[in-house]
Amino acid sequence: MVQGGIPERSLLVTIGGAGTGKTTFGLQFLQHGIENGQKGAFITLEESYDRVVQSAGEKGWPFEEHVQNGNLAVVDLDPVEMANSLSSIRNELPQLVEEFGAERLVLDSVSLLEMMYDDQATRRTEIYDFTKALKNAGVTTFLTSEADQDNPFASRHGIIEYLTDGVVVLRYVRPEDFRETRLAVEIQKIRDANHSRETKPYEITNDGISVYRQANIF
Amino acid sequence: MVQGGIPERSLLVTIGGAGTGKTTFGLQFLQHGIENGQKGAFITLEESYDRVVQSAGEKGWPFEEHVQNGNLAVVDLDPVEMANSLSSIRNELPQLVEEFGAERLVLDSVSLLEMMYDDQATRRTEIYDFTKALKNAGVTTFLTSEADQDNPFASRHGIIEYLTDGVVVLRYVRPEDFRETRLAVEIQKIRDANHSRETKPYEITNDGISVYRQANIF
Amino acid sequence: MVQGGIPERSLLVTIGGAGTGKTTFGLQFLQHGIENGQKGAFITLEESYDRVVQSAGEKGWPFEEHVQNGNLAVVDLDPVEMANSLSSIRNELPQLVEEFGAERLVLDSVSLLEMMYDDQATRRTEIYDFTKALKNAGVTTFLTSEADQDNPFASRHGIIEYLTDGVVVLRYVRPEDFRETRLAVEIQKIRDANHSRETKPYEITNDGISVYRQANIF
Amino acid sequence: MVQGGIPERSLLVTIGGAGTGKTTFGLQFLQHGIENGQKGAFITLEESYDRVVQSAGEKGWPFEEHVQNGNLAVVDLDPVEMANSLSSIRNELPQLVEEFGAERLVLDSVSLLEMMYDDQATRRTEIYDFTKALKNAGVTTFLTSEADQDNPFASRHGIIEYLTDGVVVLRYVRPEDFRETRLAVEIQKIRDANHSRETKPYEITNDGISVYRQANIF
Amino acid sequence: MVQGGIPERSLLVTIGGAGTGKTTFGLQFLQHGIENGQKGAFITLEESYDRVVQSAGEKGWPFEEHVQNGNLAVVDLDPVEMANSLSSIRNELPQLVEEFGAERLVLDSVSLLEMMYDDQATRRTEIYDFTKALKNAGVTTFLTSEADQDNPFASRHGIIEYLTDGVVVLRYVRPEDFRETRLAVEIQKIRDANHSRETKPYEITNDGISVYRQANIF
Amino acid sequence: MVQGGIPERSLLVTIGGAGTGKTTFGLQFLQHGIENGQKGAFITLEESYDRVVQSAGEKGWPFEEHVQNGNLAVVDLDPVEMANSLSSIRNELPQLVEEFGAERLVLDSVSLLEMMYDDQATRRTEIYDFTKALKNAGVTTFLTSEADQDNPFASRHGIIEYLTDGVVVLRYVRPEDFRETRLAVEIQKIRDANHSRETKPYEITNDGISVYRQANIF
User: Fold this and answer.
1) Are C179 and D167 inside 8 Å of each other by CB?
2) Do the record's keywords include ATP-binding (chains A, B, C, D, E, F) (predicted)?
3) Neighbors of chain A by Cβ distance (3+ pairs < 8 Å)
4) Residues of F in contact with A185 (CB under 8 A)
5) Separation in Å, CA F153 to CA E19, E25, E173, F14
6) Which residue of chain A is at minimal alpha-carbon distance from B128?
7) What CATH number should be reported for the domain holding residue B61?
8) pLDDT tens, position by position, A16-45
9) Is B138 in a helix, a strand, or coil?
10) How confident is the model at residue E215 (pLDDT cuts 50, 70, 90)?
C-alpha cells in the first residue's frame, strides 16, 4: 500500500480498537525486519516477556531464537515506571539503539504510557519530547495506540497522530445486516511517500496480519 | 465461536449493558468448568452469596452442592472494601488460587470495582496491576463489565478491554420496526486464537445463555 | 409481559423521562398489591402527601382509605434530609418494613435522591448500600428513575439499572411524520425470570397505565 | 389540547428555545385569566416593566390598564438579587399571593434564575424548594424555561420538568427542504389530566400564540 | 424579511460561524443607517481601526468619510481591557451614546468579550448587565456572536440569544453532493415584530451581504 | 479558487486532520513565493530543520538552496519554549520580519502552540495577542491548525478561525462504499476577497498539493 515501502528512520503509529490486531501488527513488523537481516526491539507495557514470545511463536515467528541470536530484544516495562523515568529513557535511547544496533523498534502501546500522566500539559510535553527522541535515535519505530472511543480514525488522546510521520488506522467495519464484523486498514499519512488511500480488508490469521490488497470491503 | 475453545489461563472480559445476561454468562462459565472436573470461584460485588446461589439454582446449576463438594467458592465482597484492600488481595491471589485449586474465576463486575476509584490515574494503575496479578495467578478468569452508555462495544471506563486477552460483547439490537429487542453476542478479541467475528443472536433461557450459532440476527 | 409475574422480594426500577407516567406506574403497583391483600408504602421525594393521595384518587384508587385501613403508608420526604440521613434510614428500614408489614414499596424518585450527592463516589457508595438494604428488607421495591437526557434506555446517573433485579423502560416514540408522540414500554431485565423483550405501546388513562399487549408500536 | 383545561393550582413549565414565543405564551396565559376575572402576576428576570407592558400592548392586551385596575402585577427582578434572596421570597410567597389575590403567576424565565447558581447541588436544592413553595402558594403558575441546546424536549438544566405538574414543549421543526422553519407545540405531561400527545403547529401572530389544532405539522 | 423593519432601540444578535459574513453584516447595518441620516458606532474587538475602515471601503462604504463628517465612530478595543472595565463602560454608555448621538451600534463580537471571563457565573452576570445597559442606552444595537461548534442555531456560550430582542442566524448549508457550500440566513426571533421564518440564501459580494428573498436554498 | 489571489499582508489558517497535507501546503506556499521573488520564513514546532528541508526537497523544492541564497529562513522551535517566550517573540516579530525582509511566513502548527497553555483564558489571550502581532508585522502568514476531532470544519481549540482573515479547510471525504478516502479542500473565509465556496478534490503528489479545480468530489 506504500510505494517503495515504509521510509527508513521514520516514526509511525498504528491506531486501532481492542482486538484489531495492533500487537500482531507490531510483532510482524519486527519479524519481517529480522528475516531481512535487521535487528529489532519490542517494548511492551501490556504483556509479560513470556506472553510476547508465546504470541509470536503461535504465529510461527521464533522470537525466542531471535533473542538468543542477538537479533531481538523483548523488554516488558511497567507503564508507571516508564512514565516516571521517561526523561532518562529518552536520554539513553540513542545510545541503547546504537549499542544494540536496532533498526526497528515497537512500543506497545503508547496509550498506556499516555494514560499515566494525569495532567494534560505534562502528557503532551512528555510525549512530544519522547517522539522527538525516537526520531533522533536513528531507528524506524512503530507505536501502537488505542483508538478514540467515538472516532476510530483518532487516537485515544488525540495527539500522537500529529507527532508521527505515518499513521495506519485499523478499525471495525460493521455491516448493517449484522452479519459479520470485518477488519479494515487504511493508511492515513506517510510523510514524504506516496500511498494509497484505499480502505482494504484484512484478517488476523494463524500466520499474522493478512491484508487483501485486491479486495474491497464490500 | 472460538476454535479450540477459550485459551487456558487467559483473562477475558464480557462487556454488556444492564439485562444482557453478563452474570448468567459468568455462572454458566463456572458450571461448565465444574461439569468438566475443574474447580471455580465466583466473586461478586453486586449480589449476596444467597442470591448468587439462588440465581444459579434457577438455571438448574447446583451451586450449593458444588460449594459443599469443595468445587466452588462463592464470595460476596463489598466493592468499597475490595477497592481499599486491592493491593493485599492482589498479593494473596496466587496463593489463594493455588490453595483452593481454582482453574476458573469470575469477577462480577469489574465496573463496580473501577467506580470506587475517583481519581482516573489511580483507577488505571490499580486495575492494570490487578489484571497483571490475575494473569500471573494461573487461572482462567472472566470479568464482567458494564458497557459504555453511548458505545455498546466499549466498557464503561474504556480500559479493561485493552488489558484482557479476550473480549466478548453482549448488546441489544433494536430493529427499526420497534417489534422486539434482541440480544446479540460478538467476540471482539481472543489473543492467540482464531475466532469468528460473526454477530450471533442469543437468549437468556431457563437453562442459561443460548447462542444460536446457525442463525443470523435478522 | 413477565411469565409468572414480578419475583417477590426483588428490587426493580422504572426508567422514564418527564411525563412517561413513572409515578402512576408506582401508584398502580401499590394499588394492585393492596387489592390482593398486600400492604404497601409509597415514599415520595417529589410530591406532598396530599398530592399523592389526590393523584391516586383521580385514577379511582382510594389511597386515603387504604391509609386509614392500615394497608398503606404514604411518606413525603425532603430529598436533602433523606440524603443526609440515608445511613440511619438504611439501618432502620428492615425493622420499619417488618413492623408495618409492607410487602410492596415504592420510592419516587431515586434520581432526586442521587442528585443530592455532588461527589460521584459518595453517590455510588450511598446508592449501592441503600439498594443492598432494600434487597435485605424482605420487600418488593419499585424505584422510579429519570432517564438520561440522551439515552432513554439509561438512567440519569447510569448506575441504578446495574444494582436492581429488574429494569422497566418507559419512553417516547416520536414518529417521523410528527403526528403523535406515543409511549412505549419495554422490560430490559428481570433477574431469574423469563420475560418478553417486545416493545409495547401504552397509555396513561383515567384508570392508570394501560399496556396494549396485543398491539405493536406501529 | 387538555381535556377540562389546565388543572387549578398546578405548576407548569413551558420549555422552548430562543424565539419560540415562551414570553408571549406567558403573557397570553395571564391575559386569558384576567379576561375571566382572575388576578395575575408576571415576574420577569429578562425584561424591564416597560418592555413587558409594551410587548403585551402590541398584542392588544392592555396590561397597563390591568395594573391600574389592580388585576395584574408586573415585577421586574434582577436575577442575581432574586437568587440571593430566594429563601425569603419563598417564605413570603404565600402571603404575597394571598394578599394580592393572584390566581395566575408567570415567572419568565426559571433558566435565568437557575443560571445564577454555579454549584449544581445548591441549584437543585434551591429550585426544588422554590417549586414546592409555588405549589403550596395556592396559585396556578407557568414557568418559562430555555431548552437544552441539543435536546428540544429537555430544559436547559434538566431538572424543572421533573418538578412540575405539567410540561409544554415549544420547538422548531426544520423541514429537510430548508423552506421555512415551523413552530410546533406538544404537551409532554399534565399530572392528573388527560391530554393529547399530538404535535401541533402554531404561530406567533399580532394577536399572540395561535395553535392550529386541526392541522398537522406537515 | 421583517415587516416594518427592525424595531428601533432594540438589541439584536447575529449568530454565525467563521466566514459567514457577520462583520460585513454589521458594517452594512451602519452604512444603511448613515445613508438614512442616522449616526452610528462600530466597536470591534477583533480588528484594528484601519482594517475596519479598509474592509468597509472595499464594499464601497466610505467609513473614513463618515468618521470625518462626525456620523460614525469606529473604536477598536482590546477584549481583555474591555472585560476588565466593563462595569465602567456600562455606566458611561448612555452618556456616550447621547453625547455622540448614535442611533445604531455594532459590537463585533460579543463572543470574544464572553471568552474573557473564565468563570461561568461571572460571565453570565456581566453579559446580562451589559445587555441591560445597552437596552437602556436608547440605541439600536447589533451584536455579532460566534456559533456553537455543534449547533449553528446557538451562540458559542448559549446565553446571548436569550438576552436579545432579535436573533439572526447565518449558517452554512452543505449539500450532500459536496458541490458548493451555500450561505443561509434565518430570522429566529424579533420581539414584537412579525417576521418570516423562511431560510433564505445569501452571498457576500463586492457590495456587501445580498439576501435572495425570492429564492429558496435548493 | 480566490479571485485575485490571497490578499497581501493577511493572516490565514489551514485547518486539517493528520495526513491532510497541511505541512506540504505551507511548504508550497513558501516555494511559490520564492519563485516569484519573495522571501519567506518557515517556523516549525513539529519537525527538525533537517526534516523540513528534506520534505521540501522530495517535492523538488530546493529549500537548502533558498536558505543559502538568503531567501528562506527555516526555524525549528520547541513549542514549550515558544509558549514561554511568546510575549518577547511577539515584540520582536516586526523587527525580525523587516530585517530579514520576509513577505511570507508559515507557522506549523498553531495547535501545538495552543496546547502548551493549560488555562483556557491564558491561551485565548496569548493567541489573540500573537495573531494581532502577526497582522501588524507586515507579512502574509499561513498558520496550520489541527482540526477538531468531531468537526472537520473547526480548529482543535475553536478560536483561531475567528482571529484570521482567511480559513482553508482540508478534510477527508469517506464515501459510503468504503472504497477510497479522498481529500477535499474548501475556502471557508477570505476577508475582503471574493472566493468560491466549492469543495474541490486534491491530492498530495510528488510535486506537492494538486487541487482539481474542474472536478467535483463525486
Assistant:
1) no
2) yes
3) B, F
4) none
5) 11, 22, 13, 10
6) A46
7) 3.40.50.300
8) 999 999 999 999 999 999 999 999 999 999
9) coil
10) low
Residue A218 lies in a domain: no
Q: How far apart are CA D23 and CA D15, in angstroms?
A: 11
**What is the C-alpha to C-alpha distance for residues E155 and E124, in angstroms, rounded to an integer?**
13
Comparing CB atoms, the residue among B23, B55, B149 nearest residue C148 is B149
Residues B58 and D51: their CA atoms lie apart, in Å, by: 69
Instruction: Name the residue with higher pLDDT: A74 or C181.
Output: A74
Mean pLDDT value across residues E181-201:
84
Q: Which residues in chain E touch residue D49, judged by CB atoms under 8 angstroms apart?
A: none
Residue predicted with more confidence, C195 or D217: C195
Residue E196 DSSP class? -
F55 inside 8 A of chain E by CB: no
State phi, psi for C77 to the nearest 5 degrees.
-115, 150
Cα–Cα distance, D12 to D165 (Å, whole number): 6
Q: Contact B155/B149 with Cβ under 8 angstroms?
A: no
Q: If DSSP codes are grouped into helix, strand and coil, which group holds residue D132?
A: helix
How large a percentage of chain E has pLDDT more than 70?
A: 93
Q: Which residues contact C92 (CB under 8 A, 6 or more apart)?
A: none
Could you please report the per-residue DSSP string of chain F?
-BTT-SPTT-EEEEEE-TTS-HHHHHHHHHHHHHHTT-EEEEEESSS-HHHHHHHHHHTT--HHHHHHTTSEEEEE--HHHHHHTHHHHHHHHHHHHHHHTEEEEEEE-HHHHHHT--SHHHHHHHHHHHHHHHHHTTSEEEEEEEBPSS-TTSBSSS-HHHHSSEEEEEEEE--TT-SB-EEEEEEEEETTS-B--B-EEEEEETTEEEE-TT----
What count of other Cβ atoms lies within 10 Å of the Cβ of residue C60? 10
Residue of A nearest to B9 (CA): A51
Q: How far apart are CA C113 and CA C78, in angstroms?
A: 9
Contacts of B134 (CB under 8 A, 6+ apart): B11, B93, B105, B141
**Contact exists between F and B (3 or more beta carbon pairs < 8 Å):** no
Q: Which residue of D has its CA nearest to E128?
A: D46
Please indicate, yes or no, if residue A217 is contained in any of the structural domains. no
Q: Give the distance from residue E161's alpha carbon to the nearest chain F alpha carbon, in angstroms.
A: 19
* ipTM score: 0.83
Determine whether the interchain pair E181/F191 forms a contact, defined as Cβ–Cβ distance below 8 Å: no
pTM for the whole structure: 0.84
| pLDDT value, residue C2 | 56
Give yes or no for E118 touching D (CB within 8 A): no
Asked if C40 and C103 touch (Cβ cutoff 8 Å), the reply is: yes
Q: The cell 474587538 sits on which residue?
A: E45
Distance from CA of C98 to the nearest CA of D (A): 32
Touching C (3+ Cβ pairs <8 A), the chains are B, D
Chain C residues closer than 8 Å to B150 by CB? 150-151
Cβ-Cβ contacts under 8 Å, E206 against chain F: 194
Give the pLDDT confidence score for residue B117 in this predicted structure: 86
Give percent of chain C with pLDDT exceeding 90: 56
Total tally of structural domains belonging to chain B: 1
Within a domain: D217: no
Give first-to-last CA distance, chain B, whole Å. Answer: 19
Q: Which domain holds residue C167?
A: 2-211
Domain for residue B217, yes or no? no
What is the DSSP-derived secondary structure letter of residue B156? S
Which residues of chain E does D217 touch, with a Cβ-Cβ cutoff of 8 Å? none
Question: Looking at per-residue confidence, does E120 or B207 come out higher?
Answer: B207
D119 touches chain E (CB under 8 A): no
Choose the weakest-confidence range: A117-121, C167-171, F53-57, F130-134: A117-121
Do the beta carbons of residue B108 and residue B142 sit within 8 Å? no
Nearest to E31 by CA among E6, E53, E4, E51: E53
D192 contacts C205? CB cut-off 8 A: no
Q: E191 is written with which cell numbers?
A: 420581539
